[in-house]
Specification:
Strand 6, helix 10 (228-234) and strand 7 form a beta-alpha-beta unit. The longest helix is centred in the first third of the chain and has 22 residues, at 102-123. The strands form two sheets. Strands 1-2-11-10-8-9 form a six-stranded mixed β-sheet, sandwiched between helices. A five-stranded parallel β-sheet has the order 4-3-5-6-7, sandwiched between helices. Helices cover 47% and strands 12% of the residues. It has three domains: 3-67 and 288-469, Glucose-6-phosphate isomerase like protein, domain 1 (Rossmann fold, 3-Layer(aba) Sandwich), CATH 3.40.50; 101-272, 3-Layer(aba) Sandwich (Rossmann fold), CATH 3.40.50; 474-504, no CATH class. The protein contains 19 helices and eleven strands. The chain is α/β, with parallel strands linked by helices.
Length: 504
């Protein structure tokens, strides 16, 4: 760590720790720590006033951002430089939204046209009657499409999409049970087209198509990959291979051809709105400096709780049933990106990195985990996410109660309540932030996801780590392959488990 960065951390660690109600005594706090970003089709309000950020923290974190050269790291990201230093690769997911170096955005536009053409051809009947799509992927190749479709296709989809990620055959059989093989396409989403879980599921899907009377199962397969040659070698016709660049990582790939099932379910225009909302957030992140930069300000709050206050987890609660998959999406985005223990230069990190991201859906979570949030022994920073416009046509009482519960939880965490009976006392001073959408639509969902992508990157810059590799995923998979291949010996416990399960 350079001397200026070390000095900024020293300043931050020495700052006083007033309670939230003391911070609210200062005039203008709400205005200083909340902001609105207008988007096509609506906007989003961000409110960090119920966190322990104050003017002194913002100033010291701004000094830290300058010390670690945040502006240059951000510029390198959008310029297509090799920000993924361990793999010598750029991270060009923003180019898929039209924001990045010219050659990359031009390539993305051409690849999007190819995807759009296939989507529209399918909708027009070029591949016969298509009523279902089984989308086979794992990690970002599955989480992004599943989130977007579940959030946006509640009123009906042009094609019924079933996302399957788990190699557990029960998951694939559940999808088979809902589909007719004669009217079902299979999308195989794999960057390398070698991922064990995905290719095993893909092979079983081919078998199911054949056993269901499809004379040419490969004719009903769409490949979404950065390795088109491998897909063609596997048997997919090149006209049904939708490539995406090597510089787009799995957990950032929704915006590429991995978004094919979203476009197929919703129509291309809706997918284009998803891209547009994300691009609006890209432009804000790229062109806004200091604490006014919303993803950077969120990272300041994250670092306050992880580094300065030792919080080991961060909770996210969506007070919107349509966003029920959002906490799971964030788990991969944040924990796979920033769950690191070495810095960019290979030296050990000098503090905690990513907290455990977890969460759920309000109001269900209130009756499950909020006991710990209000009266547990440690503080857990919370993000609340909600939309002003309801997603249903029932009595307004439903949505009014939903939003009242969301806002009440943040107020209660902050204020607490004293009682003579200790078991009925609430300590308060528990932090939360609120992200309030005008309406949940394709554009606002795109902006919401892009906000969290940039928040994750900003955190990584402040911690001086690389958020774009994920070598920690590989070790267990390598060992699993050696178990199935035979020959290798393991510890006594593992050997006994293998024998008991009949694997060895």
């Amino acid at each position: 760590m350079n001397e200026i960065a070390a000095a900024a951390w020293t300043t931050l660690m020495a700052l006083p720790r007033p309670r939230l109600e003391e911070l609210f005594a200062a005039a203008g706090r709400l205005e200083a720590l909340s902001a609105r970003l207008d988007l096509p089709g609506g906007g989003i309000r961000f409110d960090w006033s119920k966190t322990h950020l104050d003017a002194a923290h913002l100033a010291a974190f701004a000094q830290l951002a300058e010390a670690v050269d945040f502006a240059a790291r951000r510029e390198a990201l959008f310029a297509g430089e090799a920000v993924n230093s361990t793999e010598g690769r750029a991270a060009e997911h923003t180019a898929q939204r039209g924001v990045g170096r010219d050659t990359s955005t031009e390539e993305a536009f051409a690849l999007h046209l190819r995807t759009k053409s296939l989507v529209e051809a399918i909708h027009q009947g070029a591949l016969g009657e298509v009523r279902h799509l089984i989308h086979v992927g794992i990690g970002g190749s599955a989480l992004g499409p599943a989130l977007a479709i579940d959030a946006l296709a509640r009123d009906g989809a042009m094609v019924d999409v079933h996302v399957v990620s788990n190699i557990d055959g029960c998951a694939l059989e559940a999808a088979f049970a809902k589909c007719d093989p004669r009217t079902t396409l299979v999308a195989v989403a794999s960057k390398t087209f070698t991922t064990t879980e995905t290719m095993t599921n893909a092979q079983s899907a081919l078998t199911w198509l054949g056993e269901g009377g499809v004379s040419d199962p490969y004719g009903q397969v769409i490949a979404l990959t950065a390795n088109p040659e491998k897909a063609v070698e596997w048997g997919v016709d090149e006209t049904r291979v939708l490539p995406f660049p090597e510089t787009v990582g799995g957990r950032y790939s929704l915006w590429s051809s991995i978004g094919f099932p979203v476009a197929l379910a919703l129509g291309w225009d809706e997918f284009a709105q998803l891209l547009a909302g994300a691009a609006a957030m890209d432009e804000h992140f790229l062109n806004t400096d200091g604490a006014a930069n919303l993803p950077l300000r969120a990272a300041f709050a994250d670092q306050l709780y992880v580094r300065l206050r030792g919080c080991q987890s961060r909770a996210v609660f969506a007070y919107d049933e349509r966003l029920r998959l959002f906490p799971s999406y964030l788990q991969q985005l944040e924990m796979e990106s920033n769950g690191k223990s070495v810095k960019l230069d290979g030296s050990p990190v000098d503090g905690p990195t990513a907290p455990v991201t977890w969460g759920g859906v309000g109001t269900d979570a209130q009756h499950a985990v909020f006991q710990l949030l209000h009266q547990g022994t440690g503080a857990v920073p919370v993000d609340f996410i909600a939309a002003i416009a309801p997603g249903d046509d029932l009595s307004p009482d439903h949505h009014r109660n939903l939003l009242a519960n969301c806002f009440a939880q943040g107020a209660a965490l902050m204020a607490g309540k004293e009682a003579k009976d200790a078991a009925r006392s609430y300590p308060g001073d528990r932090p939360s932030a609120t992200i309030l959408l005008d309406e949940l639509n394709a554009a606002s969902l795109g902006a919401l996801i892009a906000f969290h992508e940039h928040r994750t990157f900003a955190n990584a810059v402040l911690m001086e780590i690389n958020p774009f590799d994920q070598f920690g995923v590989e070790l267990g998979k390598d060992i699993a392959r050696s178990m199935l291949g035979g020959g290798a010996r393991f510890d006594a416990s593992t050997q006994a488990l293998l024998a008991e399960a009949g694997i060895r």
